[in-house]
Structure formats: structure tokens, C-alpha cells
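Lab notebook, design round three. We kept the backbone fixed and only want residue identities now. Task for the bench partner: fill in a sequence for the structure below.
Input C-alpha cells:
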């Protein structure tokens, strides 16, 4: 798998996974790497909406532009199209495992498996304050660095 297609998944596709998409997209581009990158939600509450204003604000402050992203729900096709499907928390993983055909279960991982921080899940920031959104961004930057390192190593082998 030289250049895998990567899908980031959370519940609403309005806070965590679009931020992961924006962060990983810029980091990959800065490293001169070209991946197919997208994000989606296990629920469709916000279909067609732009990322949450609070996510956009904290992301903008660190140079990530989420303004053109649009919320969508995970589809059956995603399990075929994408090589790596990265959930933000255990609830996302349970929902994904329920929807995903058994033959593709090896594509499903927690995104923070690639992070150095001592967190297993990216906490849902939706009902909290700005500090929650900052923490989300810290964790997503950490995991993006780890994933890029992992993929770069894989590519050179
Ligand atoms: P996300 O956050 O899964 O990081 O996009 C949420 C967004 C919306 C809701 C829950 C979580 N909601 O209940 O509408």
C-alpha cells in the first residue's frame, strides 16, 4: 500500500473528523506527500453543513483552513474506497464495526493509535468550551505527525 486513501471518522463530521482532515491534509502537503483524504460522520445530523465555527476558529489560528469542507455521513462505498478508516473514539469504532463488512475490518483503527499523547480517544468537544477544541487540535496534530511518520517509513521499505 504505497499511497493509502485515508478517511477520518467521528460522530457528527462537524468537529473532530473535519479538523483531522484539515490538519492531515496540510501536514501531508507540507511533507510533499499526496494522499486521498476525506472525513465523514457515523451520524447524518449535520449533512451538508460546514465545520463547527469553534473548530474553524481554533484551526484557523494554527493555519488550517476548514472553511470549504462539508459534512457527510459514512457510506457503504467508503469501506471499499478507503484503505485506512480512522475513528476518533470507541463509540465511532463500534458504529463503524457494525456497518463495515467483515472483510474490511482490518482497515478500521483508532486515530490516536498513531499519537504519542497518553490519550486513547479524541474527546467529543461539541457540548464543551474552547479549551476542549484546543485539546482536540493538540491530539489531532500529534496523531497526524505519527501517522505521517508511519506512512513515510512504510513507503521507504
Ligand atoms: P463531532 O462532534 O463528532 O466531533 O463532529 C459532534 C457534533 C455534533 C453532535 C455530537 C458530536 N451532535 O450531537 O449534534
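Proposed sequence:
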Amino acid at each position: 500500500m504505497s499511497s493509502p486513501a485515508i478517511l477520518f471518522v467521528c460522530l457528527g463530521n462537524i468537529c473532530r473528523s473535519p479538523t483531522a482532515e484539515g490538519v492531515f491534509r496540510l501536514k501531508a502537503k507540507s511533507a510533499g506527500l499526496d494522499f486521498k483524504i476525506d472525513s465523514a460522520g457515523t451520524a447524518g445530523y449535520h449533512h451538508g453543513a460546514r465545520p463547527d465555527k469553534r473548530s474553524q476558529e481554533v484551526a484557523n489560528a494554527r493555519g488550517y483552513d476548514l472553511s470549504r469542507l462539508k459534512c457527510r455521513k459514512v457510506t457503504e462505498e467508503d469501506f471499499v474506497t478507503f484503505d485506512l478508516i480512522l475513528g476518533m473514539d470507541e463509540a465511532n469504532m463500534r458504529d463503524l464495526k457494525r456497518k463495515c463488512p467483515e472483510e474490511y475490518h482490518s482497515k478500521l483503527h483508532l486515530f490516536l493509535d498513531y499519537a504519542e499523547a497518553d490519550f486513547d480517544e479524541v474527546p467529543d468537544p461539541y457540548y464543551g468550551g474552547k479549551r476542549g477544541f484546543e485539546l482536540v487540535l493538540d491530539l489531532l496534530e500529534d496523531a497526524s505527525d505519527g501517522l505521517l511518520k508511519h506512512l513515510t517509513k512504510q513507503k521507504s521499505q
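Keep this in mind before ordering anything: Helices lie at 16-30, 53-61, 76-81, 90-99, 130-156.
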